[in-house]
Amino acid sequence: MSATAVPMTRRARRRRSRPRATFTSVLGELLLTAGVLVMLFVVWQMWVGDIIMSAQHNADGAAISEEWAQLPPPEPPPLITEGEGEEAVTYYEPPILDHPADTEVFAQMRIPRFGDNYNVKIAGGTTRSGTLDHIGIGVYTQSKMPGEVGNFSVAGHRTTWGFPLNKIDKLKLNDAIVVETPEGWYTYRYRTLEYVHPSEIDVLLDVPQVPDAVPGERYITLTACSPLYSLAERIIAYGVFEGFQPRSEGEPDSLAHVEVASPSW
User: Fold this and answer.
1) pLDDT digits 0-9 by tens, 172-188
2) CATH number at residue 107
């Protein structure tokens, strides 16, 4: 080894020595770490947490459906026959429920297009703190009830808090929108979708957007915020009543499996 080898090695080591931490570098690392944590929190709030909450909503709904299934079925409502001969049509007169109190759970929303396991509680009221953030889907104060002549109108989140109406824009013509109660199942069929300003509350009228009209049909109206992660507009889905099936006859064919819609986000 030459006499100059040691001094050269020491100089090389001195050149490779770790630079001292400065206030600016430490602050930069702290801000970077904070940014990563904030990003992870946002991801959790907007996706992971919502997915977990959505699964919990469906599990809670399934438990309620199972509880109702174990009870003795109520007496079926009267059968109504309209027309004569081959044109005669027989159907059950849908029982009309009392309007629920605020946050009172009385029914389940089941939409096969949203998945076979989609089963979300429906409760009175549409406040965020009372119903929408913690229960699922809420019924407007002026709403008619399932199967009643007029407009059964409800609201739900499209993003956050389990996003029960996230896939509302994926509905297809004639998709079943089923309301399950202890008495049985009320089936509506999806018809159309539109976007309105938040001030256009006439979508909640007994005949949607037709003031002073005397209702002769039974409608359902689903409302949610639009676009995603915004309160700028409302997305509105309309459906018409198809029929009621009492619990004594088992689940209706309207709950049959269909192709599952992909999430909107």
Assistant:
1) 999 999 999 999 999 99
2) 2.40.260.10
